[in-house]
């Protein structure tokens, strides 16, 4: 199965049946069906067919009523008599002057039943099949656009990560010098113990080292690219990976007090947020 957007539309017709179906963003599969009364008995099967085609999204299916000449209205005459007798008895008991007319009986909806029409179920299922095929086609097409946009943003993120990696060595190398200068300023003419300075610098460098975060970022990006090329439903998986990427880039931002690294961190966060928005619409 190719990656799909959760947004799409399809319609199909066969015989006298027309079926329209649309889908939109939803965290799970949420099916809503609007069908004529004579298709109520097929609702479970309709949902089963949709579930076999669509995995995620809010799905709305609409079937307009057919023009049928063979529909007849049946009247439950025995029940009508019971209603009439009950109304007459109630009128007499309460000493009411109202007449019991056809208008009162006509308001009792359970007296009237529409005869089940003869329908071509095969035509209905064919129309449903065509509508689902068209829906899937539009979802796949929209999915391609989303994937292309996301892939381009991932490449942009790789460039920013590469920039962070290049500045990392510069940032690490300057840590010892910055510490030395600060100590000189603080201690004045007091002789600085070189061994102690090296130890303090090592502690500082360890606290601010972003090597592991960069390695994990690259690993997550590779995993992201592998998932997006797969034929499975990718939306939820990619969302989890984005969370991991955000966690690593946030750690880098808090560790590395370097202007250019901080600038790249902001750009990466911006691209990740754009990707997250796009992923929300992927099945």
Helices and strands in order:
Elements lengths: L7 E7 L2 E8 L4 E6 L8 H11 L3 E6 L10 E3 L1 H17 L8 H5 L5 E3 L6 H67 L6 H15 L2 H18 L6 H21 L3 H21 L4
Parallel strand pairs: 3-4
Antiparallel strand pairs: 1-2, 2-4, 5-6
Helix pairs in contact: 4-5, 4-6, 4-8, 6-7, 7-8
Distance between the termini: 11 Å
Could you spell the SSE succession in H and E letters? EEEHEEHHEHHHHH
- Beta-strand percentage range: 5-15%
CATH third-tier fold name of one domain: Ribosomal Protein S5, domain 2
Arrangement of strands in the largest sheet: 1-2-4-3
Largest sheet: 4 strands, mixed
Average of pLDDT: 84
- What is the rounded Rg? 35 Å
In CATH, the architecture of one domain is 2-Layer Sandwich
Quickly name the level 1 CATH class of one domain: Alpha Beta
Please count the helical segments.
Answer: 8
Instruction: Please mark out the parts with pLDDT under 50 across 5 or more consecutive residues, or reply none.
Output: none
* Structural class by helix and strand composition: alpha+beta
Shape: elongated
């Amino acid at each position: 199965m190719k990656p799909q957007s959760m947004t799409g539309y399809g319609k199909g017709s066969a015989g006298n049946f027309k079926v329209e179906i649309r889908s939109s963003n939803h965290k799970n599969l949420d099916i809503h069906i609007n069908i004529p009364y004579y298709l109520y008995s097929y609702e479970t099967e309709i949902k089963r067919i949709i579930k076999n085609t669509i995995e995620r999204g809010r799905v709305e299916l609409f079937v307009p009523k057919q023009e049928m000449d063979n529909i007849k209205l049946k009247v439950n005459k025995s029940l009508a008599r019971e209603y009439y007798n009950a109304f007459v008895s109630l009128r007499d008991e309460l000493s009411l002057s109202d007449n019991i007319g056809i208008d009162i009986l006509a308001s009792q909806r359970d007296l009237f039943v529409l005869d089940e029409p003869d329908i071509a179920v095969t035509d209905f299922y064919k129309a449903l099949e065509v509508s689902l095929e068209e829906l899937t086609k539009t979802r796949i097409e929209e999915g391609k656009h989303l994937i292309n946009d996301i892939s381009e943003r991932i490449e942009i993120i790789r460039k920013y990560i590469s920039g962070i990696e290049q500045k990392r060595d510069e940032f690490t190398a300057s840590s010892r010098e910055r510490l030395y200068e600060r100590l000189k300023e603080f201690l004045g003419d007091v002789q600085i113990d070189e061994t102690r300075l090296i130890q303090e610098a090592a502690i500082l460098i360890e606290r601010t080292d972003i090597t592991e975060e960069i390695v994990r970022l690259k690993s997550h990006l590779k995993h992201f690219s592998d998932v997006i090329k797969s034929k499975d439903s990718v939306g939820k998986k990619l969302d989890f990976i984005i969370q991991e990427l955000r966690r690593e880039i946030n750690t880098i931002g808090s560790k590395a007090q370097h202007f250019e690294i901080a600038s790249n961190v902001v750009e990466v966060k911006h691209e990740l947020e754009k990707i997250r928005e796009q992923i929300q619409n992927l099945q």
